[in-house]
Batch of 3 targets.
Target 1
Amino acid sequence: MKNKKYISGSVLVLAIIAIVAGIFYVQENNKVQIVSRDDPTDIVVDFYQTWLDTVQSTSTDPYQAGLTDNTLLSKALQKKLSQAHEASDVDPVLCQIPTPRRFKVETAYEQPDEIQMNVFSKGSETVSQSVVTIRQLDEGWYIDDISCINESDPNTDREFTFEHEGVLSKDPAFVTDAAYWHIIYIQNIVPDRVVPLFFDTESTCIDQDKKESTCDQNQFTEMQHVIVRGNMTEAGLEVQQVETL
């Protein structure tokens, strides 16, 4: 009985520490993700500062320090960073050569459950930067993805900040403004995300035969299965491509 009491006490202490730190487990659809109640910008800054400190260290590096296993990273991102380290000389978090001495974080767009932040080298003219996607789950946040972009490269991944498979809808039962087409999709363990779509003369539609044309929204159908690519803004998605599946 005494051992049981000690064990219960240890669990209680660990639970209190986790609550104070603002970090807790969320389980949904049989998947577990650790999230933090800290401010999203603070989460990104803390992770990047720790990563930069270990890169600049003479006695260790982020991989020896186990930073790719940081539990506030999605499982997919943990795997991505580990594989990127083996495949490229470019740091997959800082995205720069040489290593920056300092960095700054700016919010690119913000939605209630998703924020994208750009991380730049502070005081440097480099055109390389990181794009960090941080997502809300339950009452906390976690870092879902990090991508490297180069503003001077016409083939940069910056071409699309959003690329998801889903269905199109204008049904008021699913969307807040039926004047616009929306994409409804599932992101990781969070279902039914809905994003409004904004088209212009540069928006390209690709049919099932892989033929491209300027998008005609009158040709869309309710629950049409598509992949949508474009750049996110605070208002919604500026569509570059809609590919019918």
Note: Helices lie at 2-21, 40-56, 75-87.
Target 2
Amino acid sequence: MTTTIVNATYKITVHDLEFMALDQRHLPQAYSEYRTTREGPLNNREMAETGFPGSTEERFHEAGRIAGHMREFGPPKPSMSDDGLDFVVASVAHLFNNPDSVSDWMSDVFLHDFQRYVGRDVGHGQKLVDVQQLEPSGFFDEAVALKAVHSSRNGLVSSTVIDFRVGRILGVAYVGAVGDYNRIAEATELGLALEQNLVSVVLGI
């Protein structure tokens, strides 16, 4: 990542994040029929409420996270009994104090929390059954990824998640599938589209 792009991220404000998360026209071809199911800003309190047990607003603030914006998409006729269905694809843009805070978040919060809760109940009627760290490729700067498998009353669901850094912005792309499936190729395509969009917004292209 060039110094120019990194420096430009210091001009980004919370209000810019909405334009960084991918909209429907930016989705990979495989998801061209998917439509927005959920979107909006994510403050640290909301992150803590939907995160792992014990997550707090204070912890995320101390980690350097300022704010974020997410946008999720789903298929026209979702069915959680349809094994192999990608029931959600999403992207999130998070703003941090500095690039080091982004890097620390990826290792100390994202990877650490998933690995810590393997085999444990994580709320919402779900148990984290397995976590596999993956090796994403093609990103300009630091990137990490994992596949997580959850069990619930409806059976297994899996999430493939990629976190990557663009200056003081954390980009997150993820794909949720019904059953135990690795979606690293799909998440990478989504993540690279997100990275391109982040850079475009940062540089005002």
Note: The radius of gyration is 16 Å.
Target 3
Amino acid sequence: MNTRLLLPLTAALALTACDLNPRPLLQNYDPESGGLFTAEVDDLDLSDNAPTVDGTLFIGSLGASEVGSGTHSGATFTFEGTGDRVCIIVDPQSVWRDDLQASGGGESANPYMDDYPHDDGDLDLSAGLASFYTGTPGVEIGDFFGSFPDGNGVDRAIDLNLCLMQDTHGSTGGTAGRATPEWCDFETEPGTTYMGVLTVFSVPVDDDRLRFALDVRSGACPPSINECTLQGDYDELAEELPSGFDNVEEQYCANYDG
């Protein structure tokens, strides 16, 4: 084999490989600077309209998680137990499958819009006793995993998250997908402080910001929760959508018959 022919080919491949930049594939990539956004952790208790039980609807936004390091963006909030069940609902931007709307007969086409996934994001919801939370509000997103020694002195893991959803198959512990609401309710002790946690799983690719609507209410959650239960999570500043309208949530819910 002629090694003189291999040398230029090897050099060309090396130059081509150097041109490959995987950063634009990351959700926390900043196209303006070419760098990466750092994780954003908000303490909603410091907000002017901090979430409270039976308070006003909270609208906020969060940045992307650091995918490479596994450091999550997100937000936390606390509330006092009522001695009854408390329901938490969060709806991340914007609407899953804009071109579909639920109806009594299942999924049916919505003639008013096309699907536009670039303005959608995903949040995971968890909650539990504030004393069991492993993160630091405003600094680092954590969870409610703990451990305890068994009878032999061996540490055993335990999940102390009280916010449990059922997936589409009826199994407990599921989470919703992009742009889809998550909710849960659980019994609370009066005067006890609980922590709610929103963890960013993905952000809209059109502006790298995830808007969300959050509601904390007393009692059990409604038997049916959909993308129109909470409204206000659509980002009005996003680019005009292909169908010509500029508020996919409003358009979707105006024609929702579920």
Note: The CA atoms of residues 236 and 247 lie 7 Å apart.
